TrEMBL record:
Subcellular location field: Membrane
Gene: abcg5
Domain ABC transporter: 51-306
Keyword hit for Transferase: no
Domain of life from the UniProt record: Eukaryota
The name this protein goes by in its record: ATP-binding cassette sub-family G member 5
Length: 661
């Protein structure tokens, strides 16, 4: 198939252009392949599936003005995004939805796919094989390819599809999954790039058209009967865009319904579409076969000039020009008169008749659900974990960043402190407290930076795949959290091993183990708190600032370094129990100072400077009872981790409600 599609440009046949023939006849170039697709005889069987959209309307309530203009901000108006849209498509057909920007194409697809949010009021009905779909059935019937390709950059095409198949198909042996993946790759002409990596912004991979095809292939794995695609040709050159549409037409011919929104199709595609719908201002201005479209516009008095692209002409004719109020009124009236003419036409009547016939009470075919046997929660988690791990382990910069950030930070501290000594007057206590402060206060930032840099891409994939019903967003969160464990442990261990022994902290092994065990937690917390907030806050920069502020507040309240705990107002004392810094600092102070003795140099001039040369005195002065709380402090410190996992799961469950598209 690859060669067939890629040779398309070479096999175009030039048709004679007859000046008198109507515009639909005057399409000048068309490949043999396209001609075969257009050929009605090409359909091997009767349509096995039908999709009817009946009177779909969507309204949202919006504030009239911006928040800084209070009088208008307090008022609301109702905006009609979709207005009474109805159409009917049978399997074997590909329908193109055209319209200028903002005409409601994507909203219509969202409405059909049941992905419209709760922001507005959705009315109307969607029937598949004459059976009205219930809300929770939408996801199991439609496959939806979004405008942007959300794919993991470091996986190959075959790996990408295999992981998706493992997430969506249950009870398939690995052999069967491989066969399914191979079949889909063959159907989408991806065989030649099976072992190529997807690629990303900073390193090359497969081409834009191939990425589109991988996104479509991911949807085909579940063998859907209805595929919706939002602007699949956006940002592709026109040749590749044409190839994608021809490919989609081929998919439709294999007993599927394909609905695609498209901005500026080339005129060659005129006959590729079985149906063309034109939208403007949320209304369906026209919906019918390409030939009917030309006849209809001719009958309205708008002939497509010779050598012009009918798509461009008809979309322009039906668009509302808002550059000034006169043009707006004139173009709106024109659009309205064309819409009225369509609603009074036989084409519209015929379409309504088809919807009615489909929905009449009789023996109807069942709803063609996608492969509904989804793997168990544990196996999905396992697949997500392997996928995330594989992707990250190939990201050299990502791995390097993860492992080295803490170490680089340790280098700064070590370089600054150099070597600890035991003389109080030469900073024996102050330097040690400084290192403890830095170890607790700064390690959350490295965790936070990792999450902000690496997680949003995965979050976008989770948003899409959860809408496809492959898994829940929180499962991706959990897989991500599990996959950071080895990296974080190694990274913190490198940091503590370097810093601890370089600056010469207390050399007893249990103290080093305790120091490492404590420092690991803030690093984890920084990353997990960031992940949890990324569930409900979309902008990573805001999350960045939020986590940084929370960390600063936690250090002030909990560490006891800025202000001793016993000197703080009661409310701050209570709040300090909610900070991990309280337990972490107390543990590190105890670990370093317990049973230690410090000396004073003879040059000491501060009276009483040497009164606290015992480490236990230092502990008793600021953290009384730290020794008895040692185990409890550890337990409470580590309790933050499961608590954050739970918080993250809740946050990503909330995200399920927030993100609809
Ligand atoms: N939930 C919503 N609240 C307010 N306005 C909305 C909402 N959803 C869509 N709209 C508005 O409805 C109009 C249609 O949006 P839609 O994305 O469907 O257009 P489109 O035809 O797909 O545009 P484009 O081709 O540029 O993607 C836009 O003006 C958009 O701002």
């Amino acid at each position: 198939m690859t060669s067939e599609i890629e040779n398309m440009s070479g096999s175009y046949s030039l048709q004679t252009v007859d000046k008198k023939s109507p515009p639909d006849e005057s399409i000048t170039v068309m490949s043999e392949k396209e001609a075969a697709i257009m050929d009605p005889g090409h359909t091997e069987s009767q349509p096995s599936c039908s999709l009817s959209i009946s009177k779909v309307s969507y309204t949202v309530s919006e504030r009239v003005g911006p928040w800084w203009d209070m009088p208008s901000y307090t008022k609301k108006w109702t905006r009609q995004i979709l207005n009474n849209v109805s159409f009917h498509v049978d399997s074997g057909e590909i329908m193109g939805i055209l319209g200028n920007s903002g005409s409601g194409k994507t909203t219509l697809l969202d409405a059909i796919a049941g992905r419209i949010g709760n922001a507005g009021t959705l009315e109307g009905e969607v029937f598949v094989n004459g059976r009205k779909l219930r809300r929770k059935q939408f996801q199991d019937v439609f496959s939806y390819v979004l405008q942007s390709d959300n794919l993991l950059s470091y996986l190959t095409v075959e790996e990408t599809l295999t992981f998706t198949a493992q997430l969506s198909l249950r009870g398939y042996s690995s052999d069967a999954i491989q066969k399914r993946v191979a079949a889909v790759m063959a159907e989408l002409s991806l065989g030649h790039v099976a072992h190529s990596v997807i690629g990303g912004r900073i390193f090359p991979g497969i081409s834009g058209g191939e990425r589109r095809r991988v996104s479509i292939a991911s949807q085909l794995l579940q063998d859907p009967k209805v595929i919706l695609l939002d602007e699949p040709t956006t940002s592709l050159d026109s040749m590749t865009a044409n190839q994608i549409v021809v490919l989609l037409a081929e998919l439709a011919k294999r007993d599927r319904i394909v609905i695609v929104t498209i901005h500026q199709p080339r005129s060659e595609l005129f006959r590729i579409f079985s149906k063309i719908a034109i939208m403007s201002r949320g209304e369906l201005v026209f919906c019918g076969q390409p030939g009917e479209m030309v006849d209809f516009f001719n009958s309205c008095g708008y002939e497509c000039p010779e050598y012009c692209n009918p798509f461009d002409i008809y979309v322009d004719l039906t668009s509302v020009d808002t550059r000034n109020s006169e043009r707006e009124v004139a173009t709106y009236n024109r659009m309205h008169s064309i819409t009225s003419a369509y609603q009074n036409s036989d084409i519209y009547e015929g379409m309504l008749g088809k919807i009615q016939k489909c929905c009449q009470p009789q023996e109807k075919p069942s709803i063609p659900f996608k492969s509904r046997t989804s793997p168990t929660c544990a196996s999905k988690l396992w697949v997500l974990l392997r996928r995330t791990m594989k992707n990250l382990s190939r990201d050299r910069m990502g791995v390097l960043m993860r492992l080295s950030q803490n170490l680089i930070y340790g280098l700064f501290v070590a370089f600054f402190v150099m070597r600890l000594n035991d003389d109080v007057d030469r900073g024996a206590v102050q330097d040690r407290i400084g290192i403890i402060y830095q170890s607790i206060a700064a390690t959350p930032y490295t965790g936070m930076l990792n999450a902000v840099a690496l997680f949003p891409a995965l979050r976008a994939i989770a948003d899409q795949e959860s809408m496809d019903g492959l898994y829940h967003k929180w499962q991706m969160f959990l897989a991500y959290v599990i996959h950071i464990i080895p990296f974080s442990v190694i990274s913190v261990f490198i940091f503590t091993s370097f810093l601890y022994w370089t600056v010469g902290m207390n050399p007893e092994p249990w103290r080093f183990a305790s120091f490492s065990g404590v420092v690991l937690v803030p690093h984890f917390i920084g990353e997990m708190l960031t992940l949890a907030l990324l569930g409900v806050v979309h902008d990573p920069n805001m999350v960045n600032s939020g986590v940084a502020l929370l960390n600063i507040a936690g250090v002030m309240l909990g560490s006891g370094f800025l202000r001793s705990n016993k000197d703080m107002p009661r409310v701050f004392q209570w709040l300090s129990y909610l900070t991990f810094q309280k337990y972490g600092c107390e543990l590190l102070i105890f670990t370093e100072f317990h049973s230690s003795n410090f000396t004073c140099s003879e040059s000491s001039v501060v009276p009483g400077a040497c009164s606290m040369i015992s480490g236990d005195n230092i502990i008793d002065a600021s953290y009384p009872g730290a020794e008895t709380r040692f185990t409890m402090d550890f337990l409470l410190l580590y309790a933050f981790l499961p608590a954050l996992v739970i918080l993250g799961i809740i946050s990503f469950r909330i995200r399920d409600r927030l993100i609809r598209r």
